[in-house]
Amino acid sequence: MARPMEKLDFLLDENVLVKPARSFDEPAAELWLKIHRRCHRVVLSPEHSQRFWQWLRRLRSRLDTHPIPTFLETVSICLTHSGKSTWVTEENVPEEACIRHQKDKFLARLAVRCPGCVVVTADKNTREDFQRPEFMEKRGIRAVTIQEALSLAKGSV
Length: 157
What we know:
The chain has a five-stranded parallel β-sheet with strand order 3-2-1-4-5, sandwiched between helices.
């Protein structure tokens, strides 16, 4: 008998939205589709959600001609539907000192409030920063590439 699929909370770096919109990065686009179609959720704060919506507005013309016709709708559902998102607050935490890139410190603020989440980023340094005990051992947080996240979302890892 098949085991039920694990429901995961994915904390997506903004590049996971920008890449499929700008250059049709297929794994990143497929990740959004898998999160939407399966029982997974996107970790959001009001500020993080606002950043995603700003990107969507900037990239609207590209998204209107996206190779996946439902891509914009899928992302919108993930960002607005209560069953597709896990909302947390974005307040300073000591763990953000572990993140080298200033622009990615907010990921630490969100991840700490969502133990067990999967941080998805294209930045190798940020993934390495999340491999520290403060995240992995204390909170069960893991950081992965877009391709690894896609495998997790499909349930193949």
